[in-house]
Design a protein that fits this description.
With 228 residues, this protein is mostly helical. The protein contains 8 helices and no strands. Its cofactor is heme b.
């Protein structure tokens, strides 16, 4: 879950994927999340079956509580992502409202998964190491503690990449994806220019009334295209 979910998070952030179509990246993002969810469900079924076979109580530790909560919210996240962002039925304004929530909840679930993994490996060490005990710092304990530190570093790097603006997919690439069928490349360049010009402050555009009127028309057209 940690490895596949992290790949799904940063799939939009890799520069060599920016030349791919936005629709293709959506399918890759959804496919990786689906694989991660299936693996998580299979692993949870295996854990319950193992506990039942060994007469070990289920759902008594904080690790199990947080882990089950993360999987449940992850399933909801995936279902809503399919319904709102992948299928072409949700209105544009709904997607715009839900996108920040979708991103924040995805990063929160990923951080929760990292925390669950850390608690799980610590719990396993405490129960498994008897002679010598975990408190005696045997090589197994040192190895797993180092693994936990690597998980923290890995998770921090993923969250850093997902939160930096310069790792975002460039808007002009989105404009190329959204150009109508039959539009010339020149039209795409104009569309990219209009999209980039929307970042200019309006007070700087007060050259004259005619130029301001034309610029406002460009703003409106770029805004309509960028929200498709």
């Amino acid at each position: 879950l940690v490895s596949v979910l992290s790949a799904a998070i940063i799939v939009y952030r890799l520069p060599w994927t920016w030349k791919c179509s936005k629709l293709l990246m959506k399918f890759i993002h959804a496919g990786l999340n689906t694989i991660a969810m299936i693996l998580a469900i299979v692993s949870m079924v295996a854990v319950f079956e193992f506990h039942n076979a060994k007469n070990i109580p289920n759902m008594y530790s904080l690790h199990s509580w947080i882990g089950l909560t993360a999987v449940i919210f992850y399933c909801l996240q995936l279902f809503l992502g399919f319904a709102v962002f992948l299928l072409p039925f949700a209105p544009v304004h709904l997607r715009a409202v839900l996108m920040p929530i979708h991103v924040y909840s995805g990063l929160t679930i990923f951080a929760t998964v990292i925390a669950t993994a850390l608690m799980g490996i610590t719990e396993k060490l405490i129960f498994s190491l008897k002679s010598p005990a975990y408190s005696a710092s045997p090589p197994e304990a040192t190895f797993v503690n180092c693994l936990g530190l690597l998980l923290v570093i890995f998770g921090s790097l993923i969250l850093w990449m997902a939160s930096r603006p310069h790792w975002k997919r460039p808007p002009e690439e989105n404009a190329k994806v959204l150009r109508p069928i039959g539009e010339t490349p020149e039209g795409t360049e104009v569309e990219s220019t209009m999209t980039n010009s929307s970042n200019v402050d309006k007070p700087d555009l007060r050259i004259n009334s005619e130029a301001a009127r034309k610029q406002n028309l460009k703003f409106d057209e770029a805004g309509q295209r960028s929200t498709m």
